[in-house]
Design goal:
- Keywords: Coiled coil, Heme, Iron, Membrane, Metal-binding, Monooxygenase, Oxidoreductase, Transmembrane, Transmembrane helix.
- One of its GO terms (molecular function) is oxidoreductase activity, acting on paired donors, with incorporation or reduction of molecular oxygen.
- A hairpin with a 4-residue loop joins strand 1 and strand 2.
- The chain contains 15 helices and 5 strands.
- It folds into 3 domains: 1-34; 35-101, no CATH class; 133-310, Cytochrome p450 (Orthogonal Bundle).
- It is 65% helix and 6% strand.
- The chain has helices at residues 2-34, 41-48, 58-68, 87-96, 104-115, 124-138, 141-166, 178-195, 210-225, 231-240, 243-269, 278-283, 289-320, 322-336, 356-367; strands at 73-76, 81-84, 343-347, 350-354, 382-385.
- The chain is globular, with a radius of gyration of 26 Å.
Length: 387
């Protein structure tokens, strides 16, 4: 009997030792793949933050490296990430073999607190369901007409009057930060379109919106997670609820509270099918309130910075190329007439109301269809985590 017990004990020790050795070996392989001690100039610059001496932000540094790379692709070994600006690579990853490049847990963990199960943070059937639903809703005439009405109203009642209020002034009172103005414009528009909520960011006094501030903070702090040399750092801070993770938690709570309030109000009023904002449309299909919040917040994220960045780049280019500005004005005069007035045009199957000022601003964007609307050095990134 004692002999059997000795054998069992020996086998237990052997099994435990083997498990421990295998775990250590797996950890070693994982660390070797990450190459945390990599001494190449890219990793050395990243770890020591020496890149910040010459560049204002990480994306500018990445752009510099990508321009120097003959393949338009770089590898940050210490992060286990590959970054590419090669159009063929981007098409391969995002279109041709999209199913072969899941986001994976490291990526979804970074954005999980803000985006949850939104379309930018999921794979497989969940992603396909949201994409199908979004395509169906965004393709409907009523939703597109609603979007045009929201944007046109924001331009006519807020954007143009704000710009006109400082036009021609010679003092500092006549100076506006257009990038900030366009961010406010896009946030008002996308919030109204997504939630049916008007934050009023573009009011003449340019007030600070609690929701906009929380959304900005949550986006910024979530992005900073990806810049840490190891996810362990931000996970430890989140566990102890300190520093940036505490700020992120508070910002996300503000977003959650507002989303919950909006969803509860819609459920009380009912009549989802009669409304054209995205939240109401999705509520007709989805019953899970948390899932609804994640879906709509993802659309909010998608619409805000893309619109403001595009408009900022557009008007920056117009300021550098007055001949293009003249061409736009000539086309506007041809299409709408110098007297302006209200016109109704049919475009791609949906009715659009074009007012003199609002229509000019909207049509100006269309007039640049033959011109690059982004800076020449703009890069579209796809970061792949090695798994």
């Amino acid at each position: 009997m004692a002999g059997l017990e000795s054998i069992y004990t020996a086998f237990g020790i052997i099994f435990f030792s083997f498990t421990a050795l295998f775990s250590l070996f797996s950890l070693l392989v994982f660390i070797l793949r990450l190459r945390p001690w990599c001494n190449c100039h890219v990793c050395r610059s990243f770890l020591t933050a020496s890149w910040s001496k010459d560049f204002d932000n990480l994306c500018d540094w990445y752009t510099h490296l990508l321009k120097k790379s003959p393949t338009g692709t770089i590898h940050i070994h210490v992060l286990g990430n590959i970054i590419t600006s090669n159009p063929e690579n981007v098409e391969h990853i995002l279109k041709t073999r999209f199913h072969n490049y899941p986001k994976g847990r490291p990526f979804t963990a970074i954005l999980g607190d803000l985006l949850g199960r939104g379309i930018f943070n999921v794979d497989g059937d969940t992603w396909r369901f949201q994409r199908k639903m979004a395509s169906m809703e965004l393709g409907s005439v009523s939703v597109r007409s609603h979007a045009l009405e929201v944007v046109a109203a924001e331009i006519q009642t807020r954007l143009i009057p704000l710009l006109a209020s400082v036009s021609g002034k010679q003092s500092n009172d006549g100076v506006l930060d257009l990038q900030d103005v366009f961010r406010r414009f896009s946030f008002d528009s996308i919030s109204n379109f997504s939630f049916g909520l008007d934050p009023g960011c573009l009011e003449p006094s340019l007030p600070e919106s609690k929701f906009a501030a929380a959304f900005d903070a949550a986006s910024k702090l979530s992005a900073e997670r990806a810049m840490t040399s190891s996810p362990m750092f931000w996970k430890i801070k989140r566990f102890f609820n300190v520093g940036s993770e505490k700020q992120l938690k508070e910002a996300v709570r503000t977003i959650d509270d507002l989303a919950k309030q909006m969803i509860e109000q819609r459920r009380e009023k009912g009549g989802f099918a009669a409304k054209n904002d995205l939240l109401s449309r999705f509520m007709a299909t989805v019953d899970d309130d948390r899932y609804l919040r994640d879906i709509v917040v993802s659309f909010l994220l998608a619409g805000r910075d893309t619109i403001s960045s595009g408009l900022t780049s557009l008007f920056y280019l117009l300021s550098k190329h007055p001949e293009v500005t003249r061409a736009i004005r000539e086309e506007l005069d041809r299409v709408m007439g110098r007297a302006g007035g209200r016109r109704r045009r049919r475009r791609r199957g949906c009715h659009c109301e074009l007012w003199t000022d609002a229509g000019n601003a909207l049509l100006a964007c269309c007039a640049l269809r033959d011109h690059e609307a982004l800076p020449a050095g703009a890069i579209r990134f796809q970061v792949l985590s090695r798994r």
